[in-house]
Amino acid sequence: MNARQAFAEALLAAEPVCPPGLTTWNGSAPEKRFAVYRNTVTVGLVDALADSFPVTLQLVGEDFFRAMAREFARQTPPRSPVLALYGDGFAEFIEAFPPVAALSYLADLARLELMRVQAWHAADAAAVAAETIVRLLDDAAALPQARFTLHPSVRLLRSRHAVVSLWAAHQSEAPSSSLATIDTASAESALVLRNGLEVEISVIDEAAAIFIELLQQGRAFGLAAGQALDADSRFDLAQTLGLLVRSGALADLTISGSTTS
Amino acid sequence: MNKTMNAASLALALGAAMTMAAAPIHAASHGGAMKAETEKCFGVALKGKNDCKAGAGTTCAGTSKMDHQGNAWSMVPKGTCEKTMSKTSPTGNGQLMEFKEKKA
């Protein structure tokens, strides 16, 4: 192990151990100087998670959150200097973290919060022109083969818990007033995207989430709609498309190659 | 499985969607108040309380605070979850002892 590795490892080690061979320019104690730096690193990472997961923090309280985030930061230090996107894997960590096993919705809530941050920083993309869609409508026979390109910020969450309601409740000044009415055991799906400069979170039906997911994977329009309808016969295609169009989530719509169906 | 929706239905839905998108939609967060009741209501997007919240790293974090070496294994969540949990289970006090020793 070289000196740089030893230094990096000591920064996040569970026990404060000063890496060997460390010297100071002015003769002060290296252990003390190193401890200051170590503290700064840990606190910086924990602060970063606290900033990106504010509702997760509110749910478990600041003391608990900071202690949990610290464990995560040790195991999973950031791989990029861009702290704004730090938090990949935090939801999975929470899922496997025994002290919060009773809060089965917490991991999905963290997922939702990470999606929000990711959507915020996703690339821009102009919405598809209405004329393009109108032109496709003229050639309706080819529509089942149409492929959609979604806005890069689009994220989907299918949760077994009412995490969107939980998240929404925490956007008010006094979340406790509305929390009691939320049944955390009811499933909710969310569409997260950035519309212009704002990140928007919409509760959608699971079938709608399936449909959008398939579109995102590059599946054909007809197939995606068919599968969503399979999943739930009440799937409302027009409403779902309307939501996508209105929120600028459709970046492009093409019929690749010749029409085969 | 792998059923495909027919072209006519797709065209109808897409046409309707275009009409819908053109119609005005009531703002999601008028007055800044966010409602927790998120019924299955399409098109009403929720927005965060703090719109400039772009994730971490926007301030010079970590310079003044002291890491309290908190140990999550010996702590219990004490946040709003206590108000949310009523239906499912207690706050998990019972786990405290069990998991404390796992921390080697």
Characterize the structure shown.
The complex is a heterodimer of chains A (261) and B (104). Chain A is mainly alpha-helical and 261 residues long. Chain A has two domains: 1-103, no CATH class; 123-261, no CATH class. Helix content of chain A is 49%, strand content 12%. Chain A contains twelve helices and five strands. In chain A, the strands form two sheets. A three-stranded antiparallel sheet of chain A has the order 2-3-4. The radius of gyration of chain A is 23 Å and the shape is elongated. With 104 residues, chain B is mainly alpha-helical. Chain B contains three helices and no strands. The termini of chain B are far apart. Chains A and B meet through helix 2, helix 3, helix 4, helix 6 and helix 7 of A and helix 1, helix 2 and helix 3 of B.
Mean pLDDT of chain B: 61
Q: What fraction of residues of chain B sit in β-strands?
A: under 5%
Biggest sheet layout of chain A: 3 strands, antiparallel
- End-to-end Cα distance of chain B, whole Å, is 50 Å
Say what oligomer this is: heterodimer
Distance between the termini of chain A: 61 Å
**Into which percent range does the helicity of residues of chain A fall?**
40-55%
* Secondary-structure-derived class of chain B: mainly alpha
What is the helix/strand order of chain A? Answer: HHHHHHHEEHHEEHHHE
Of all chain pairs, the largest interface belongs to: A-B, 110 and 79 residues
Strand order of the largest sheet of chain A: 2-3-4
Could you name the ranges of chain B where pLDDT drops below 50 across 5 or more consecutive residues? 27-43, 88-104
Low-confidence blocks of residues of chain A: none
| Element-level helix/strand string of chain B | HHH
Count every beta strand of chain B, where a strand is a DSSP E run of 2 or more residues. 0
